[in-house]
């Protein structure tokens, strides 16, 4: 497989966004001091995104989001969706949602590297029974 300019842009996006999440966790989520600051009456602005990140982590939504994007990436084969699945899967692993996050990242990577028109997963028309797609171009 030869990497194209589009593939390199996707790899750069995955590395940059995952690195940004890693840095945010390192600076604003992991230190106990931020937990203390965020329960104060007048809390800093950074506590709002921190609370959202922890809430998404607690309910496993990082991993479920990656899984949903991975399934969509395999079904429709859209490059942006596949890159988003790999990125969100890596972020899910950073946020302790590895069970679904790794599966979503793997599905996204599969959709990303699969050549166009490579069989059933490449085209949505192969998943829809002919009776349901009558008169529709897919």
General description of the model:
Helices cover 67% and strands 0% of the residues. α1 (5-29) packs parallel to α5, α4 runs antiparallel to α5 (79-94) and α5 (79-94) runs antiparallel to α6 (98-113). It has six helices and no strands. The two termini are 27 Å apart. With 138 residues, it is mostly helical. It has helices spanning 5-29, 32-38, 47-58, 61-76, 79-94, 98-113. The longest helix is centred in the first third of the chain and has 25 residues, at 5-29.
Describe the secondary structure blueprint for this structure.
Layout: H1 5-29, H2 32-38, H3 47-58, H4 61-76, H5 79-94, H6 98-113
What is the beta-strand fraction? under 5%
Q: Report the major sheet.
A: none
Shape: elongated
Overall residue-averaged pLDDT value: 85
Helix content: 55-70%
Helix and strand composition category: mainly alpha
* Integer-rounded radius of gyration: 19 Å
Low-confidence stretches: none
Element-level helix/strand string:
HHHHHH
Sum this structure up briefly:
The chain has 138 residues and is mostly helical. It has six helices and no strands.
What tags apply to this protein structure?
138 residues; mainly alpha; 0% strand
């Amino acid at each position: 497989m030869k990497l194209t300019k589009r593939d390199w842009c996707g790899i750069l996006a995955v590395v940059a966004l995952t690195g940004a999440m890693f840095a945010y966790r390192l600076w604003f989520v992991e230190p106990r001091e931020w937990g203390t600051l965020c329960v104060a009456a007048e809390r800093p602005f950074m506590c709002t995104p921190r609370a959202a990140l922890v809430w998404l982590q607690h309910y496993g939504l990082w991993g479920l989001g990656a899984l949903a994007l991975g399934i969509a990436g395999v079904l429709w084969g859209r490059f942006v969706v596949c890159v988003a699945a790999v990125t969100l899967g890596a972020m899910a692993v950073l946020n302790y949602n590895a069970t679904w996050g790794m599966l979503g990242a793997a599905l996204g990577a599969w959709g990303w590297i699969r050549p166009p028109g490579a069989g059933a997963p490449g085209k949505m028309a192969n998943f829809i029974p002919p009776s349901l797609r009558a008169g529709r171009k897919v």
